[in-house]
Design a protein that fits this description.
alpha/beta; 319 residues; single chain; 9 helices
């Protein structure tokens, strides 16, 4: 399924850059995720029978979203997407001339153009790309603001970022069941389900990174399982099991697992006995600034009263 990768054209590459704020100053970043462990688990998932239903769904949706953008893209990068599902969809769209796969696993990628790249240290020259897409990868970046800044720098003026991430409401059922089970059986909590970014924070992150016209929206997908163990098998087959640096290193106690299964079945079962698992997909859209883009009017520059535009009667406020 996977093959040998080629390097991207030299005109796209630079010695890799780290994070930092938009003035180039270094910033302190908490290491929430063990990214080496993430790569190991994703590699293990690829070797067996990967569960790709979320990625396949996101890839189709991203293709549809890109289809309504009325322009062609010369140079595009698929950043970190764990499979080639997104590249297959975009290649069939006819909207992209050159599509590069960039991820830590690119050495094993079948794409004709691929580069080994960490999402936290992008190897692309400033203003060298027309489009950056990413599907279900950026949620495991420790320095998301820094990564977004690097993406914006790599985009040409009026270049587009379109990304999908796992959102903060994902796996809320599993999180709740584990928290109650551990509190009852072990007298305390340990991080079992990864924290994901809240949709309310991502818009400000795009603005902080310097993107124009930022748009954030989300989809909620409910997947039903016969039991929580089936959900946990799917997470393993996605390479998405616990990679938090603060995770408990001791094996999960059988009593805790039994209690978790009991709580999950009691609280999150439908009438037919099957169990719900929530996946929230958050979509990020942002453009590298360009003078042709729409800009908000200056305060006080309106030429028509709002009340007149709405056909309403204005009621003065008494002071």
């Amino acid at each position: 399924m996977l093959g040998t990768a080629c390097m991207i054209p030299p005109s796209l590459s630079l010695p890799h850059k780290g994070g930092g704020d938009d003035n180039g100053d270094a910033v302190s970043v908490s290491t929430i995720f063990d990214r080496q462990l993430l790569r190991q688990r994703q590699r293990r998932a690829r070797l067996f029978a990967p569960a790709t239903f979320l990625l396949d769904r996101v890839a189709e949706e991203m293709g549809e979203r890109l289809s309504v953008v009325l322009r062609q893209f010369d140079r595009a990068v698929d950043l970190g997407t764990p499979t080639d599902a997104l590249r297959r969809v975009l290649a069939a769209s006819g909207k992209i001339t050159t599509l590069v796969a960039a991820s830590p696993a690119a050495a094993h990628d079948a794409s004709p153009l691929a580069v080994v790249a960490d999402e936290e240290a992008l190897p692309f020259a400033d203003a060298s790309l027309d489009l950056v897409v990413s599907a279900l990868a950026l949620q495991f970046v420790n320095d998301l603001p820094g990564t977004l800044i690097q993406i914006r720098r790599a985009l040409k003026a009026d270049g587009l970022l379109l990304a999908a991430m796992i959102g903060g409401d994902s796996l809320s059922e599993l999180r709740e069941a584990f928290a109650e089970a551990e509190s009852e059986i072990e007298g305390g909590l340990s991080p079992r389900v990864s924290p994901f970014a809240d949709i309310r924070d991502l818009g400000s992150l795009l603005q902080r990174a310097g993107f124009a016209l930022p748009v954030i929206d989300s989809d909620r997908l409910i997947v039903r399982y016969d039991n929580p163990l089936a959900l946990m098998r799917d997470l393993r087959a996605m390479g998405a099991t616990n990679i938090m640096t603060e995770r408990r290193r001791t094996p999960l106690k059988r009593a805790t697992l039994r209690k978790m299964l009991e709580i999950y079945a009691r609280r999150f079962a439908d009438a037919d006995g099957r169990l719900r698992a929530t996946f929230e997909i958050v979509w990020l859209t942002g453009w590298a600034p360009h003078e042709s883009q729409q800009k908000p009017l200056k305060p006080g520059s309106a030429t028509q009263r709002l009340a007149d535009a709405l056909g309403a009667r204005e009621i003065p406020v008494k002071r």
